[in-house]
Amino acid sequence: MSHLITQSCCNDAACVPACPVNCIHPTPEEPEFATAEMLYIDPATCIDCGACVPECPVDAIVPDTALTSANERFRGINAEYFRDHDVRAGVLPFRASEPPRVRESARVAVVGAGPAGLYTAQELLAEPNVEVDVIDRLPTPLGLIRAGVAPDHQATKKVGTALDAIARSPRFRYLLGVEVGRHVSPAELAEIYSAVVYAHGAADPKSLGIPGEDLPSSVSSTEFVAWYNGHPDYADRVFDLSGERAVVVGNGNVALDVARILLTDPDDLAKTDIADHALERLRESAVREVVLLGRRGPAEIACTIGELAALGSRSDIDFVIENTAPVEGGSAREIDGSRDADLHPKFALLRALAADCDDDGTRRRRIVFRFHSRPVTIQGTAEGGVTGIEVEDTAGTARSATPKSDPVIIETPLVVRSIGYTGRPLAGLPFDTSRGVVPNHEGRVLDGASGAPLPGQYVAGWIKRGSQGGIGTNRRCGEETARSILSDLASDPRPAQQTDLVEIVAARDASVIDVRGWESIDSAERAEGATAGRPRVKITDRGALHAAADGRG
Protein backbone atom coordinates (compact mmCIF):
# COMPACT_ATOMS: atom_id res chain seq x y z
CA MET A 1 0.00 0.00 0.00
CA SER A 2 1.13 3.57 -0.66
CA HIS A 3 -0.21 7.09 -0.72
CA LEU A 4 -1.13 9.00 -3.87
CA ILE A 5 -1.45 12.65 -4.87
CA THR A 6 -4.75 13.57 -6.52
CA GLN A 7 -6.38 16.39 -8.48
CA SER A 8 -6.36 19.18 -5.91
CA CYS A 9 -2.53 19.24 -5.63
CA CYS A 10 -1.44 22.88 -5.41
CA ASN A 11 2.32 22.31 -5.89
CA ASP A 12 3.35 24.22 -2.78
CA ALA A 13 5.68 21.31 -1.91
CA ALA A 14 4.99 21.45 1.83
CA CYS A 15 4.79 17.66 1.67
CA VAL A 16 8.29 17.20 0.22
CA PRO A 17 10.45 17.76 3.34
CA ALA A 18 7.99 15.72 5.42
CA CYS A 19 8.75 12.54 3.48
CA PRO A 20 11.48 10.45 5.19
CA VAL A 21 12.27 8.44 2.05
CA ASN A 22 12.26 11.16 -0.62
CA CYS A 23 9.43 9.62 -2.64
CA ILE A 24 7.62 12.87 -3.62
CA HIS A 25 8.80 14.48 -6.85
CA PRO A 26 9.69 16.74 -8.46
CA THR A 27 11.25 18.50 -5.50
CA PRO A 28 11.91 22.26 -5.60
CA GLU A 29 15.57 21.53 -6.35
CA GLU A 30 14.77 19.48 -9.44
CA PRO A 31 14.61 21.34 -12.76
CA GLU A 32 11.11 20.07 -13.59
CA PHE A 33 9.58 21.58 -10.45
CA ALA A 34 9.21 25.00 -12.07
CA THR A 35 6.91 23.61 -14.77
CA ALA A 36 5.37 20.64 -12.93
CA GLU A 37 1.63 20.25 -13.38
CA MET A 38 1.40 18.49 -10.01
CA LEU A 39 3.56 16.46 -7.64
CA TYR A 40 3.73 12.67 -7.62
CA ILE A 41 4.40 9.91 -5.08
CA ASP A 42 6.54 6.97 -6.16
CA PRO A 43 4.56 3.83 -5.25
CA ALA A 44 7.73 1.72 -5.22
CA THR A 45 9.41 3.95 -2.63
CA CYS A 46 6.52 5.14 -0.43
CA ILE A 47 6.53 3.43 2.98
CA ASP A 48 2.96 4.47 3.76
CA CYS A 49 3.96 6.43 6.85
CA GLY A 50 1.46 9.21 6.13
CA ALA A 51 3.85 11.97 7.25
CA CYS A 52 2.99 13.99 4.16
CA VAL A 53 -0.77 13.93 4.68
CA PRO A 54 -1.13 16.64 7.37
CA GLU A 55 1.31 18.88 5.49
CA CYS A 56 -0.94 19.14 2.42
CA PRO A 57 -3.10 22.27 2.66
CA VAL A 58 -5.63 21.02 0.08
CA ASP A 59 -6.17 17.38 1.17
CA ALA A 60 -4.71 16.05 -2.09
CA ILE A 61 -2.82 13.10 -0.55
CA VAL A 62 -4.79 9.91 0.14
CA PRO A 63 -3.96 6.21 0.74
CA ASP A 64 -4.39 4.15 -2.41
CA THR A 65 -6.96 2.07 -0.52
CA ALA A 66 -9.12 5.17 -0.15
CA LEU A 67 -9.34 5.96 -3.86
CA THR A 68 -12.84 6.50 -5.16
CA SER A 69 -14.04 5.84 -8.68
CA ALA A 70 -13.69 9.58 -9.28
CA ASN A 71 -9.94 9.61 -8.60
CA GLU A 72 -8.91 6.03 -9.41
CA ARG A 73 -7.06 7.34 -12.48
CA PHE A 74 -4.50 8.98 -10.20
CA ARG A 75 -3.08 5.58 -9.30
CA GLY A 76 -1.74 5.30 -12.82
CA ILE A 77 -0.82 8.97 -13.08
CA ASN A 78 1.46 8.79 -10.02
CA ALA A 79 3.11 5.59 -11.21
CA GLU A 80 3.46 6.81 -14.80
CA TYR A 81 5.62 9.76 -13.78
CA PHE A 82 8.29 7.47 -12.38
CA ARG A 83 8.44 5.36 -15.53
CA ASP A 84 10.22 8.27 -17.21
CA HIS A 85 11.94 9.85 -14.20
CA ASP A 86 14.64 7.95 -12.33
CA VAL A 87 14.64 9.90 -9.07
CA ARG A 88 15.09 7.23 -6.42
CA ALA A 89 18.76 8.09 -6.02
CA GLY A 90 18.25 11.73 -6.89
CA VAL A 91 18.37 15.01 -5.02
CA LEU A 92 17.22 15.27 -1.45
CA PRO A 93 14.06 17.17 -0.52
CA PHE A 94 14.27 20.94 -0.52
CA ARG A 95 15.62 22.46 2.66
CA ALA A 96 16.53 26.10 2.18
CA SER A 97 19.45 27.58 4.02
CA GLU A 98 18.73 30.17 6.66
CA PRO A 99 19.00 33.77 5.40
CA PRO A 100 21.24 36.27 7.22
CA ARG A 101 19.63 37.77 10.34
CA VAL A 102 18.11 41.24 10.12
CA ARG A 103 19.54 43.05 13.13
CA GLU A 104 17.49 46.26 12.92
CA SER A 105 13.72 46.67 12.83
CA ALA A 106 12.29 46.84 9.34
CA ARG A 107 8.82 47.33 7.89
CA VAL A 108 7.94 45.82 4.51
CA ALA A 109 4.96 46.61 2.30
CA VAL A 110 3.55 43.82 0.13
CA VAL A 111 1.28 45.06 -2.66
CA GLY A 112 -1.16 42.27 -3.43
CA ALA A 113 -3.01 40.02 -0.97
CA GLY A 114 -3.05 36.93 -3.17
CA PRO A 115 -0.98 33.76 -2.74
CA ALA A 116 2.26 35.33 -4.01
CA GLY A 117 2.03 38.25 -1.60
CA LEU A 118 0.97 36.15 1.37
CA TYR A 119 3.63 33.47 0.84
CA THR A 120 6.21 36.28 0.68
CA ALA A 121 4.81 37.78 3.88
CA GLN A 122 4.91 34.40 5.59
CA GLU A 123 8.60 33.99 4.88
CA LEU A 124 9.37 37.59 5.93
CA LEU A 125 7.58 37.13 9.25
CA ALA A 126 9.92 34.25 10.11
CA GLU A 127 12.39 37.06 10.87
CA PRO A 128 11.35 38.55 14.26
CA ASN A 129 12.61 42.05 13.43
CA VAL A 130 10.35 42.45 10.39
CA GLU A 131 6.81 43.84 10.26
CA VAL A 132 4.64 43.41 7.17
CA ASP A 133 1.75 45.45 5.76
CA VAL A 134 -0.16 43.67 2.97
CA ILE A 135 -1.95 46.16 0.72
CA ASP A 136 -4.71 45.36 -1.77
CA ARG A 137 -7.18 47.48 -3.69
CA LEU A 138 -10.01 45.00 -3.01
CA PRO A 139 -11.88 44.89 0.30
CA THR A 140 -11.00 41.19 0.62
CA PRO A 141 -7.70 39.26 0.53
CA LEU A 142 -6.63 35.91 -1.00
CA GLY A 143 -6.61 37.05 -4.63
CA LEU A 144 -7.23 34.22 -7.07
CA ILE A 145 -8.03 31.77 -4.29
CA ARG A 146 -11.20 33.77 -3.73
CA ALA A 147 -11.78 35.21 -7.20
CA GLY A 148 -10.12 32.67 -9.51
CA VAL A 149 -10.44 29.10 -8.23
CA ALA A 150 -13.62 27.52 -9.57
CA PRO A 151 -16.40 27.15 -6.99
CA ASP A 152 -16.62 23.40 -7.65
CA HIS A 153 -12.99 23.06 -6.52
CA GLN A 154 -13.55 23.65 -2.82
CA ALA A 155 -10.59 21.46 -1.82
CA THR A 156 -8.22 23.77 -3.69
CA LYS A 157 -9.64 26.76 -1.83
CA LYS A 158 -8.51 25.22 1.47
CA VAL A 159 -5.04 26.64 0.89
CA GLY A 160 -6.63 30.01 1.70
CA THR A 161 -7.17 28.88 5.30
CA ALA A 162 -3.46 28.23 5.71
CA LEU A 163 -2.52 31.55 4.14
CA ASP A 164 -5.10 33.46 6.16
CA ALA A 165 -3.45 32.17 9.34
CA ILE A 166 -0.54 34.53 8.60
CA ALA A 167 -2.78 37.40 9.69
CA ARG A 168 -2.63 36.17 13.30
CA SER A 169 0.90 37.51 13.67
CA PRO A 170 1.04 40.73 15.72
CA ARG A 171 3.61 42.00 13.19
CA PHE A 172 1.16 41.67 10.29
CA ARG A 173 -1.45 44.14 9.00
CA TYR A 174 -3.99 44.07 6.20
CA LEU A 175 -4.55 47.40 4.47
CA LEU A 176 -7.39 46.38 2.18
CA GLY A 177 -9.26 48.87 -0.01
CA VAL A 178 -6.03 50.74 -0.77
CA GLU A 179 -5.09 51.16 -4.43
CA VAL A 180 -1.47 51.84 -5.33
CA GLY A 181 -1.37 54.47 -8.03
CA ARG A 182 -4.53 56.09 -6.72
CA HIS A 183 -4.31 56.38 -2.94
CA VAL A 184 -0.54 56.11 -2.73
CA SER A 185 2.28 56.12 -5.27
CA PRO A 186 5.17 53.63 -5.55
CA ALA A 187 7.54 56.51 -4.78
CA GLU A 188 5.72 57.22 -1.49
CA LEU A 189 5.79 53.53 -0.53
CA ALA A 190 9.54 53.48 -1.19
CA GLU A 191 9.99 56.41 1.22
CA ILE A 192 7.82 54.97 3.99
CA TYR A 193 8.91 51.32 4.02
CA SER A 194 12.23 49.51 4.34
CA ALA A 195 11.26 47.44 1.29
CA VAL A 196 8.28 47.15 -1.04
CA VAL A 197 7.18 43.93 -2.76
CA TYR A 198 4.87 44.16 -5.76
CA ALA A 199 2.81 40.98 -6.00
CA HIS A 200 -0.24 42.36 -7.78
CA GLY A 201 -0.40 39.65 -10.42
CA ALA A 202 -0.80 39.61 -14.18
CA ALA A 203 -4.50 39.33 -14.87
CA ASP A 204 -4.84 41.30 -18.11
CA PRO A 205 -6.08 38.90 -20.81
CA LYS A 206 -3.90 38.31 -23.85
CA SER A 207 -5.42 39.29 -27.17
CA LEU A 208 -6.28 36.98 -30.07
CA GLY A 209 -5.61 39.84 -32.47
CA ILE A 210 -8.46 38.89 -34.81
CA PRO A 211 -11.44 40.84 -36.21
CA GLY A 212 -14.52 40.81 -34.01
CA GLU A 213 -12.64 40.24 -30.78
CA ASP A 214 -14.22 43.32 -29.20
CA LEU A 215 -17.82 42.46 -30.10
CA PRO A 216 -20.39 42.19 -27.31
CA SER A 217 -20.44 38.61 -25.95
CA SER A 218 -16.81 38.09 -26.94
CA VAL A 219 -15.38 38.14 -23.45
CA SER A 220 -12.19 37.20 -21.68
CA SER A 221 -12.03 34.37 -19.18
CA THR A 222 -10.82 37.00 -16.68
CA GLU A 223 -14.24 38.66 -16.82
CA PHE A 224 -16.29 35.47 -16.81
CA VAL A 225 -14.38 33.78 -13.97
CA ALA A 226 -14.42 36.95 -11.85
CA TRP A 227 -18.19 37.21 -12.47
CA TYR A 228 -19.10 33.76 -11.22
CA ASN A 229 -16.64 34.04 -8.33
CA GLY A 230 -18.16 37.26 -6.98
CA HIS A 231 -15.42 39.79 -7.75
CA PRO A 232 -17.03 43.16 -6.94
CA ASP A 233 -15.73 44.76 -10.16
CA TYR A 234 -17.66 42.23 -12.26
CA ALA A 235 -20.81 41.58 -10.23
CA ASP A 236 -23.01 43.59 -12.58
CA ARG A 237 -21.78 41.97 -15.81
CA VAL A 238 -24.31 40.29 -18.11
CA PHE A 239 -23.34 37.41 -20.40
CA ASP A 240 -25.39 35.97 -23.25
CA LEU A 241 -26.29 32.42 -22.20
CA SER A 242 -29.28 32.17 -24.53
CA GLY A 243 -27.70 29.78 -27.02
CA GLU A 244 -27.23 26.03 -26.69
CA ARG A 245 -23.53 26.31 -27.58
CA ALA A 246 -20.68 28.38 -26.14
CA VAL A 247 -17.15 28.44 -27.53
CA VAL A 248 -14.05 28.79 -25.40
CA VAL A 249 -10.81 29.65 -27.19
CA GLY A 250 -8.13 27.72 -25.32
CA ASN A 251 -7.97 24.43 -23.47
CA GLY A 252 -6.03 25.19 -20.30
CA ASN A 253 -7.27 24.79 -16.74
CA VAL A 254 -9.22 28.05 -16.79
CA ALA A 255 -10.92 27.06 -20.05
CA LEU A 256 -11.96 23.77 -18.43
CA ASP A 257 -13.25 25.70 -15.41
CA VAL A 258 -15.43 27.87 -17.64
CA ALA A 259 -16.78 24.83 -19.48
CA ARG A 260 -17.59 22.94 -16.28
CA ILE A 261 -19.37 25.88 -14.67
CA LEU A 262 -21.45 26.48 -17.80
CA LEU A 263 -22.51 22.82 -17.89
CA THR A 264 -22.87 21.93 -14.21
CA ASP A 265 -26.36 21.49 -12.80
CA PRO A 266 -27.17 24.74 -10.93
CA ASP A 267 -28.49 22.67 -8.01
CA ASP A 268 -24.98 21.27 -7.59
CA LEU A 269 -23.41 24.72 -7.92
CA ALA A 270 -25.82 25.94 -5.22
CA LYS A 271 -23.82 23.85 -2.73
CA THR A 272 -20.65 25.85 -3.45
CA ASP A 273 -19.58 29.46 -2.88
CA ILE A 274 -20.47 30.59 -6.41
CA ALA A 275 -21.79 34.16 -6.49
CA ASP A 276 -25.57 34.36 -6.12
CA HIS A 277 -25.98 36.58 -9.18
CA ALA A 278 -24.13 34.02 -11.31
CA LEU A 279 -26.12 31.11 -9.90
CA GLU A 280 -29.38 32.87 -10.71
CA ARG A 281 -28.26 33.55 -14.29
CA LEU A 282 -26.96 30.00 -14.79
CA ARG A 283 -30.35 28.60 -13.75
CA GLU A 284 -31.76 30.36 -16.81
CA SER A 285 -28.91 29.30 -19.12
CA ALA A 286 -29.65 27.42 -22.33
CA VAL A 287 -26.04 26.30 -22.82
CA ARG A 288 -25.76 22.54 -23.31
CA GLU A 289 -22.52 22.30 -25.28
CA VAL A 290 -19.13 23.97 -24.81
CA VAL A 291 -16.52 23.72 -27.57
CA LEU A 292 -12.90 24.12 -26.47
CA LEU A 293 -10.70 25.26 -29.34
CA GLY A 294 -7.02 24.28 -29.35
CA ARG A 295 -4.59 25.45 -32.00
CA ARG A 296 -2.48 22.32 -31.73
CA GLY A 297 -3.14 18.64 -31.18
CA PRO A 298 -4.24 16.65 -28.12
CA ALA A 299 -0.62 16.00 -27.11
CA GLU A 300 -0.25 19.74 -26.49
CA ILE A 301 -3.49 20.30 -24.59
CA ALA A 302 -2.73 23.07 -22.10
CA CYS A 303 -4.68 21.84 -19.07
CA THR A 304 -2.89 19.85 -16.39
CA ILE A 305 -3.19 16.10 -16.26
CA GLY A 306 -4.84 16.34 -12.84
CA GLU A 307 -7.64 18.59 -14.11
CA LEU A 308 -8.17 16.36 -17.12
CA ALA A 309 -8.31 13.21 -14.98
CA ALA A 310 -10.80 14.84 -12.61
CA LEU A 311 -13.31 15.13 -15.45
CA GLY A 312 -13.68 11.37 -15.23
CA SER A 313 -15.99 11.86 -12.25
CA ARG A 314 -18.52 13.75 -14.36
CA SER A 315 -21.15 11.20 -15.32
CA ASP A 316 -23.52 13.99 -16.42
CA ILE A 317 -21.31 15.27 -19.25
CA ASP A 318 -20.30 13.65 -22.53
CA PHE A 319 -16.80 14.28 -23.86
CA VAL A 320 -16.19 14.49 -27.58
CA ILE A 321 -12.80 14.73 -29.31
CA GLU A 322 -12.69 16.30 -32.75
CA ASN A 323 -9.99 16.99 -35.31
CA THR A 324 -7.13 15.01 -33.80
CA ALA A 325 -5.46 13.65 -36.94
CA PRO A 326 -2.78 15.76 -38.69
CA VAL A 327 -2.52 16.32 -42.43
CA GLU A 328 -0.20 14.24 -44.55
CA GLY A 329 3.33 14.82 -43.41
CA GLY A 330 2.21 15.69 -39.88
CA SER A 331 3.73 14.28 -36.73
CA ALA A 332 3.23 10.52 -36.43
CA ARG A 333 3.22 10.95 -32.68
CA GLU A 334 -0.18 12.61 -32.97
CA ILE A 335 -1.93 10.10 -35.21
CA ASP A 336 -5.00 8.78 -33.43
CA GLY A 337 -3.77 5.21 -32.92
CA SER A 338 -3.08 2.68 -30.23
CA ARG A 339 0.43 3.87 -29.39
CA ASP A 340 -0.73 7.36 -28.44
CA ALA A 341 -1.59 6.07 -24.96
CA ASP A 342 2.07 5.28 -24.38
CA LEU A 343 3.39 8.47 -25.95
CA HIS A 344 0.91 10.99 -24.55
CA PRO A 345 -0.81 10.29 -21.20
CA LYS A 346 -3.14 13.27 -21.68
CA PHE A 347 -4.29 11.97 -25.06
CA ALA A 348 -4.91 8.59 -23.45
CA LEU A 349 -7.03 10.27 -20.79
CA LEU A 350 -9.00 12.17 -23.41
CA ARG A 351 -9.74 8.99 -25.29
CA ALA A 352 -10.74 7.24 -22.08
CA LEU A 353 -13.13 10.08 -21.23
CA ALA A 354 -14.73 9.87 -24.64
CA ALA A 355 -14.93 6.06 -24.49
CA ASP A 356 -16.70 6.19 -21.13
CA CYS A 357 -19.55 8.30 -22.49
CA ASP A 358 -23.01 6.91 -23.12
CA ASP A 359 -24.35 6.67 -26.64
CA ASP A 360 -28.01 6.73 -25.69
CA GLY A 361 -28.29 10.50 -25.47
CA THR A 362 -29.17 10.55 -21.78
CA ARG A 363 -26.42 13.03 -21.02
CA ARG A 364 -27.86 16.36 -22.02
CA ARG A 365 -24.59 18.28 -21.84
CA ARG A 366 -21.23 17.83 -23.53
CA ILE A 367 -17.73 19.26 -23.83
CA VAL A 368 -16.19 19.13 -27.29
CA PHE A 369 -12.38 19.19 -27.44
CA ARG A 370 -11.73 20.48 -30.96
CA PHE A 371 -8.04 20.41 -31.85
CA HIS A 372 -6.00 21.87 -34.73
CA SER A 373 -8.36 24.86 -34.81
CA ARG A 374 -7.22 28.46 -35.12
CA PRO A 375 -9.73 31.33 -34.76
CA VAL A 376 -9.83 33.59 -37.82
CA THR A 377 -12.67 35.99 -37.03
CA ILE A 378 -15.42 36.40 -34.48
CA GLN A 379 -18.60 37.12 -36.37
CA GLY A 380 -21.50 39.32 -35.38
CA THR A 381 -22.46 42.97 -35.02
CA ALA A 382 -21.99 45.69 -32.45
CA GLU A 383 -25.75 45.86 -32.02
CA GLY A 384 -26.56 42.15 -31.94
CA GLY A 385 -23.38 40.71 -30.47
CA VAL A 386 -21.59 37.51 -31.45
CA THR A 387 -23.19 35.07 -33.89
CA GLY A 388 -20.31 32.68 -34.47
CA ILE A 389 -16.59 32.12 -34.72
CA GLU A 390 -14.72 31.27 -37.91
CA VAL A 391 -11.89 28.76 -37.46
CA GLU A 392 -9.41 27.15 -39.81
CA ASP A 393 -7.92 23.70 -39.46
CA THR A 394 -4.19 23.51 -38.86
CA ALA A 395 -1.60 20.80 -39.31
CA GLY A 396 -1.13 20.61 -35.56
CA THR A 397 2.40 19.27 -35.62
CA ALA A 398 4.52 19.81 -32.55
CA ARG A 399 6.08 23.03 -33.85
CA SER A 400 3.71 24.45 -36.46
CA ALA A 401 0.08 25.27 -37.00
CA THR A 402 -0.46 26.02 -40.68
CA PRO A 403 -3.81 26.04 -42.51
CA LYS A 404 -4.88 22.73 -44.00
CA SER A 405 -8.44 23.39 -45.25
CA ASP A 406 -11.07 26.04 -45.77
CA PRO A 407 -12.36 27.80 -42.63
CA VAL A 408 -15.53 26.61 -40.93
CA ILE A 409 -18.00 28.61 -38.87
CA ILE A 410 -19.10 27.45 -35.44
CA GLU A 411 -22.35 29.17 -34.55
CA THR A 412 -22.57 30.56 -31.02
CA PRO A 413 -23.74 33.72 -29.21
CA LEU A 414 -20.88 33.54 -26.66
CA VAL A 415 -17.11 33.34 -27.15
CA VAL A 416 -14.85 33.20 -24.11
CA ARG A 417 -11.19 33.92 -24.79
CA SER A 418 -8.89 31.93 -22.49
CA ILE A 419 -5.40 32.11 -23.98
CA GLY A 420 -3.36 33.42 -21.07
CA TYR A 421 -2.60 36.58 -19.14
CA THR A 422 -0.08 39.38 -19.04
CA GLY A 423 0.99 41.98 -16.52
CA ARG A 424 0.02 45.64 -16.55
CA PRO A 425 2.58 48.48 -16.18
CA LEU A 426 2.45 50.39 -12.91
CA ALA A 427 3.63 53.99 -13.04
CA GLY A 428 6.94 54.30 -11.25
CA LEU A 429 8.08 50.70 -11.87
CA PRO A 430 10.14 49.38 -14.81
CA PHE A 431 8.19 47.08 -17.12
CA ASP A 432 9.17 44.56 -19.78
CA THR A 433 6.40 44.91 -22.38
CA SER A 434 7.54 41.88 -24.38
CA ARG A 435 7.20 39.51 -21.40
CA GLY A 436 4.52 41.37 -19.47
CA VAL A 437 6.56 41.39 -16.24
CA VAL A 438 8.65 43.70 -14.09
CA PRO A 439 12.33 42.98 -14.90
CA ASN A 440 14.02 41.38 -11.91
CA HIS A 441 16.67 39.02 -10.65
CA GLU A 442 15.62 36.69 -7.82
CA GLY A 443 12.83 39.15 -7.06
CA ARG A 444 14.99 42.29 -7.03
CA VAL A 445 13.54 44.88 -9.43
CA LEU A 446 16.06 45.89 -12.09
CA ASP A 447 16.37 49.38 -13.53
CA GLY A 448 15.13 49.38 -17.10
CA ALA A 449 18.13 51.39 -18.38
CA SER A 450 21.11 50.17 -16.39
CA GLY A 451 19.91 46.72 -15.36
CA ALA A 452 21.05 47.42 -11.80
CA PRO A 453 18.84 46.46 -8.82
CA LEU A 454 16.64 49.26 -7.51
CA PRO A 455 17.18 49.50 -3.73
CA GLY A 456 14.17 48.43 -1.71
CA GLN A 457 12.06 47.36 -4.73
CA TYR A 458 11.00 43.72 -5.23
CA VAL A 459 8.44 41.57 -7.04
CA ALA A 460 6.81 38.18 -6.50
CA GLY A 461 4.28 36.01 -8.33
CA TRP A 462 3.07 36.42 -11.90
CA ILE A 463 4.28 40.01 -12.20
CA LYS A 464 7.72 38.58 -11.42
CA ARG A 465 7.83 35.42 -13.54
CA GLY A 466 4.86 35.65 -15.93
CA SER A 467 1.50 33.86 -15.80
CA GLN A 468 2.89 30.40 -15.19
CA GLY A 469 2.38 27.98 -12.34
CA GLY A 470 -0.47 27.43 -9.93
CA ILE A 471 -1.15 28.62 -6.41
CA GLY A 472 1.56 26.55 -4.76
CA THR A 473 4.23 27.68 -7.22
CA ASN A 474 4.00 31.07 -5.56
CA ARG A 475 5.33 29.60 -2.35
CA ARG A 476 8.86 29.04 -3.68
CA CYS A 477 8.63 32.23 -5.72
CA GLY A 478 7.69 34.22 -2.61
CA GLU A 479 10.36 32.53 -0.53
CA GLU A 480 13.03 33.46 -3.08
CA THR A 481 11.93 37.10 -3.04
CA ALA A 482 11.70 37.20 0.76
CA ARG A 483 15.21 35.80 1.08
CA SER A 484 16.52 38.47 -1.28
CA ILE A 485 14.86 41.10 0.91
CA LEU A 486 16.19 39.67 4.16
CA SER A 487 19.68 39.31 2.74
CA ASP A 488 19.64 42.92 1.52
CA LEU A 489 18.29 44.25 4.83
CA ALA A 490 20.92 42.28 6.74
CA SER A 491 23.75 43.82 4.74
CA ASP A 492 22.23 47.28 4.23
CA PRO A 493 19.54 48.15 6.81
CA ARG A 494 16.83 50.54 5.59
CA PRO A 495 14.91 51.91 8.59
CA ALA A 496 11.25 52.55 7.94
CA GLN A 497 9.71 55.97 8.45
CA GLN A 498 7.42 56.55 11.39
CA THR A 499 4.69 57.72 9.00
CA ASP A 500 1.67 55.44 9.02
CA LEU A 501 0.31 54.71 5.56
CA VAL A 502 -3.22 54.44 6.96
CA GLU A 503 -3.22 58.15 7.81
CA ILE A 504 -2.01 59.08 4.32
CA VAL A 505 -4.57 57.04 2.38
CA ALA A 506 -7.45 57.93 4.72
CA ALA A 507 -6.88 61.57 3.79
CA ARG A 508 -7.31 60.49 0.16
CA ASP A 509 -10.72 58.87 0.64
CA ALA A 510 -9.53 55.30 1.12
CA SER A 511 -11.69 53.25 3.50
CA VAL A 512 -9.11 50.88 4.93
CA ILE A 513 -10.17 47.39 6.03
CA ASP A 514 -7.80 45.76 8.50
CA VAL A 515 -7.47 42.18 9.77
CA ARG A 516 -10.48 42.51 12.06
CA GLY A 517 -12.54 43.97 9.24
CA TRP A 518 -11.72 41.02 7.00
CA GLU A 519 -12.51 38.59 9.82
CA SER A 520 -15.88 40.27 10.19
CA ILE A 521 -16.58 39.90 6.45
CA ASP A 522 -15.43 36.29 6.54
CA SER A 523 -17.63 35.48 9.53
CA ALA A 524 -20.67 37.12 7.94
CA GLU A 525 -20.23 35.19 4.69
CA ARG A 526 -19.69 31.87 6.48
CA ALA A 527 -22.70 32.43 8.73
CA GLU A 528 -24.93 33.11 5.75
CA GLY A 529 -23.45 30.07 4.06
CA ALA A 530 -24.16 27.83 7.05
CA THR A 531 -27.80 28.87 6.92
CA ALA A 532 -27.95 27.99 3.22
CA GLY A 533 -25.92 24.77 3.48
CA ARG A 534 -22.98 26.29 1.60
CA PRO A 535 -19.31 27.05 2.44
CA ARG A 536 -20.10 30.76 2.32
CA VAL A 537 -22.36 33.24 0.57
CA LYS A 538 -20.10 35.87 -0.91
CA ILE A 539 -20.78 39.56 -0.48
CA THR A 540 -20.15 41.11 -3.89
CA ASP A 541 -21.05 44.78 -3.41
CA ARG A 542 -18.25 47.07 -2.21
CA GLY A 543 -20.53 49.09 0.03
CA ALA A 544 -21.91 45.93 1.62
CA LEU A 545 -18.38 44.59 2.10
CA HIS A 546 -17.35 47.73 3.97
CA ALA A 547 -20.53 47.57 6.03
CA ALA A 548 -19.77 43.95 6.95
CA ALA A 549 -16.22 44.92 7.86
CA ASP A 550 -17.64 47.48 10.27
CA GLY A 551 -19.98 44.87 11.74
CA ARG A 552 -23.04 46.40 10.07
CA GLY A 553 -23.55 43.67 7.45
Sum this structure up briefly.
The protein is α/β, with parallel strands linked by helices. Helices cover 27% and strands 18% of the residues. The chain has 18 helices and 22 strands.
Feature tags:
single chain, 553 residues, alpha/beta, seven-stranded mixed sheet, six-stranded parallel sheet, 18 helices, 22 strands, 27% helix, 18% strand
Largest sheet: 7 strands, mixed
Number of strands: 22
Uncertain regions: pLDDT < 50 for 5+ in a row?
A: 89-95, 327-341, 396-400
> Helical element count?
18
Range of helix content: 25-40%
SSE class? alpha/beta
Distance between the termini: 50 Å
Global mean pLDDT: 90
The radius of gyration computed from the alpha-carbon positions, rounded to a whole number of angstroms, is 24 Å
Q: Strand order within the widest sheet?
A: 7-6-5-8-22-21-20
**What is the overall shape?**
globular
Strand content: 15-25%
Question: How would you characterize this protein structure?
Answer:
This protein is of the alpha/beta class and 553 residues long. The protein is globular, with a radius of gyration of 24 Å. Strands 7-6-5-8-22-21-20 form a seven-stranded mixed beta sheet, sandwiched between helices. The longest helix has 19 residues, at 473-491. The chain contains 18 helices and 22 strands. Helix 2 packs across helix 15.
